[in-house]
Amino acid sequence: MNFKQKFSDFLKTVFPATKFELLLFLIFLGIYGILGSCIAMNYRIIFDDRIPWDAYFSFDNRAIVMTGGGFERHPLSNYFFNWIREFAFIISNGKKDEIFRLVLAWCSNFAVSLALIQMYKYLKNIIQLPKTISLLILVFFSFFTTTILLSFTPETYTYTLFFLMLFNYYAALQLKKEERISTASMTLATVSIGGLTVTNAVKIFIPLLFENGLFKSWRKLGNAALRVFVSVTVFVLLFLYRLDFNYMRFFEKSGEQYEKFSKPKVTPLWDMIYSWFFGGNMLFSNFLIRDYHNKKGFQYKALFMDVYTSVVPYIFVGLVLVLVFWAYFKNFKNKLVQILMISFFVDIIIHCFLKFGLHTSYIYGGHFIFVVPLMMGWLFSSYKNSAKMLTFLFITVSILLFYLGMNNVLRMGEFFAFLNQYYQ
Predict the structure, then answer these.
(1) Which one, 75, 90, 106, 254, has least CB within 10 Å?
(2) Helices 311-330 and 335-347 meet at what angle, rounded to 10?
(3) Helices (H) and strands (E) in the chain, counts
(4) pTM higher than 0.90
């Protein structure tokens, strides 16, 4: 295969490849673009040079945009956000004004809209669902808390959502064709995904475990090990270069961060897991307003999510999780399903068992919440020959979508009330 063909295949994988996919992309780009443009042009919450962190839901907008965030969690994100920041400065003539915010919002909008197209491609080309079911699941995901918030938020999670969706789709394509994931692809994925959030790097190597005949041939096993070695070596060298090869800084700072973000909170552990880790990335809860300052005397209001206060959201989250794990056990022998769920379990271990950032785990959804709609897709696929079950599942997801849409639209109204009061 020549370079021209490879480049063409790359573009078809990353971007809309059909007229219908392009239409979907433009619809999402338009809807999220209106939302992001309204917030960017009328409110200063997306970027305020005086507010480094936590203005809404613990996102670190300014810190991420200006520095890429802490190197211990975001090893190479400074390079990535340098490009985005400089691009925004070019459009805004070097000013940190509403135009600057608008460019940041539209970059996020573009990434999230592309992530949704990757999901549609996975549902259509990998799971091979009918268009109606694929659209139902896609619209369901488009109303998730994570999807809505990241569509205008300049954060590492925004781009991680896109890169992880892209890699999962690409890996599924390769495994379905019984082809290897190339060294170049693995290296690029490790640098981009692991560079934005270091713990996500391990997810790049999960699909390798399911390559055809990997553990039956020393040659294939050795080749896989070589690909991992090259990917990790490139990533580590780039990271060490950022640290001036003082690797002890990473271990010292990582220990500090784990201690800071893993302390027990007043909220019961089960409710943090249920309301914030699982639920908060799908369904908005009540909001809490707290007083914050930037350590230089500037006072501001910060918005956070409370745990759920009525039984209906708990039922909603419970039903969604039932569908996810039903799909898992129904498709347990499917290697593509295993890849998704093992990736999901990585985040469950980090946040729910090690308790890292569990009290604000509703901001980490870009790392894992896309697994939920994809698993729903696999559940539909497992009953493709049963009209009654397909009807039951379609009605169930439609009801869940109706409640999700109503709840999250109403909560976004409350979010705008917060902006009107404190961020004009």
Answers:
(1) 90
(2) 140
(3) 17, 2
(4) yes
What is the SS3 assignment for 212? coil
Burial of 93 (0-12, 13-18, 19+ CB in 10 A): exposed
**Residue 202 is encoded by which pair of tokens?**
């391990």
Residue that the structure tokens 């009525």 belong to: 310
Q: In whole angstroms, what is the distance from residue 62 CA to residue 68 CA?
A: 9
CA–CA distance, 148 with 105 (Å, rounded to integer): 12
Query: What is the DSSP code string of 115-148?
Result: HHHHHHHIIIIIS---HHHHHHHHHHHHTSHHHH
Length of the chain: 424
Strand segments (E) across 8-64: none
d(CA 290, CA 278): 23
pLDDT tens digit sequence for 146-183: 999 999 999 999 999 999 999 999 999 999 999 999 99
Burial bucket for residue 89 (CB in 10 Å: 0-12, 13-18, 19+): middle
DSSP 8-state class, residue 267: S
pLDDT digits (tens, 9 = 90+) for 20-79: 999 999 999 999 999 999 999 999 999 999 998 899 999 999 999 999 988 888 999 999
Helix (H) or strand (E) holding 300: strand 299-305
Non-local (6+) Cβ contacts of 178 within 8 A are 212
379-395 as b/e, with b when 16 or more CB fall inside 10 Å? bbbbeeeeeeebeebee
Q: Could you give the CA distance from residue 392 to residue 374 in angstroms, rounded to a whole number?
A: 18
Q: At 87, which amino acid appears? A: F
Separation CA 266–CA 275 (nearest Å): 14
Q: How far apart are CA 400 and CA 119, in angstroms?
A: 19
Alpha-helical regions (H) of 177-247? 183-189, 195-196, 218-242
- Looking up tokens 């569509």 gives 151
